[in-house]
Amino acid sequence: MEREMVIVLGVIGADCHAVGNKILERFFGDRGFKVVNLGVMVSQDEYIDAAIETGAEAIVVQSLYGHGEIDCQGFRERCTERGLEGIVMHVGGNLVVGKAEPEEVRKKFLAMGFDRVVFPHDDLREEAEALKNDILTRRK
Question: 17, 49, 122, 134: which is the annotated catalytic residue?
Answer without folding.
Answer: 17
